[in-house]
Input
Amino acid sequence: MKLIKNYIYNLLFQASTLLLPLITVPYVSRVLGSNGVGIAEYTTAISMYFVIFAQFGIYFYGTRTIAYYRDDVEKRNSIFWDLTYMKFIFMTVSIALFLIMVLFFDKRYFAILLILVINILSVGFEISWFFNGMEDMQKVAVRNIASRTIGTALIFILVKTPNDVWIYVMIFSLTGLISNIILWKFLKEHQISYKPFSFSGVKKHAIASSGLFLSSMIAIIYSCMDKTVLGSLVPASEVGHYSMASKLLGMSIGFVSCLGTVMLPRIANVFAQGDIEQVKYYTATTFNFMLMFSIYIAAGFLGASAEFVPWFLGSDFLPAINLLYILSFTVILIVMTNVFGTQLLIPMGREKDYVISQIVGIVFLLIFSLTLVPKYHAVGTCISMVISSFIIVLYRYCLLKDILPHKAMFSEVWKYVAGGITVVFALRYIGSTMGIGAFTTCAQIAAASIIYLAILFVFKASILNVIYDKLVKKMLAKVKVKAVND
Output
């Protein structure tokens, strides 16, 4: 039940990442325009290389290590402080390197890049990894929701013209820093007490987390390379179009990918106990759950983008429609990389394999980006992302094929695909009949949900039974008990 609660808390946070941008994205796209959005996204992508260096792999390493020792108060207290000291050291080095880069190498967006130093500073205070490892995700979710809500309000209050890009960046940087600091007040609930600096402790964890640091650095290079290569070769407006398309997909897939965050400490704990069969059960269940939703999301964007983008983003972002058609396929691929990577390779301690798979993806992304972007601009970036994502999925599958429960994972995929294809055709019919508008999008969402669920029900998709048994039944039972007690 705790696993379900943690997923619900993460789901609430992901709901905020979807609902709040639904409010801000149309406003920001119209106020800043594609050029302003492109500048913000390009500079943020550059800063993320330094943010990830400051983190030094602690998010995943810390979550996993705390999960291993969450029942040992003294051990987890020592781990927390060693990792915190280590992160402050790397944060300081990262800020110095970033300032050198800003001062001597790239001065096009000097002021905005200086503001983004705050993002690196906030890394030193980021401790959500500890609460995730303790499977206490309520506080992290509430913190994140509050931070995003305040940031949303400030955007409407302060961002008024295309020249306010720096204000837009400042809002996100400061709210992130403050929300990280606030989370520290809850450490006492987990019996965390002050521990002096230990060089040997920091050194030990720095060596142990170096593999995950490399994997995190590779991951951020992979996730930011699309924008940095695009921004260095074509106008900022192209970055704006691409960023909005990828952001819309990211908002949607967050609902699915948050399950990976919840499952990491659970699978790590089960794997540490040597219960391989339970690991296989979790893998098959989460794979089917995430794939079911990812195909639904991909089908939705394939079928509804033509009517959705014009009224939601405005006429300046019409090129994003074709980008969404291509990027929709990455939703499914990202879910599969998440299952094979975050939920299996990392909990199993196979960081080396995780890193190599990311490097392979980066090589293909770079090759295809440099080949396609100069001629096809943002479309070339989208094609490169699909190809590189597929390569990563294929590589990780080959690494894990001997331990994957193939029948449990893949036997019902055709049912999700059949539902997705039907949804695409239905949405195109609705869109062509009703035309562009918010009402059309609402009708398409409702129709897609009903049609997709109906097809899964007709084909008797077993994942629906799992959802009912694990979630609906327990919720109904709690309601019944409460009603009896009242």
Remarks:
- The CA atoms of residues 292 and 416 lie 6 Å apart.
- The radius of gyration is 22 Å.
- The chain has a mean pLDDT of 84.
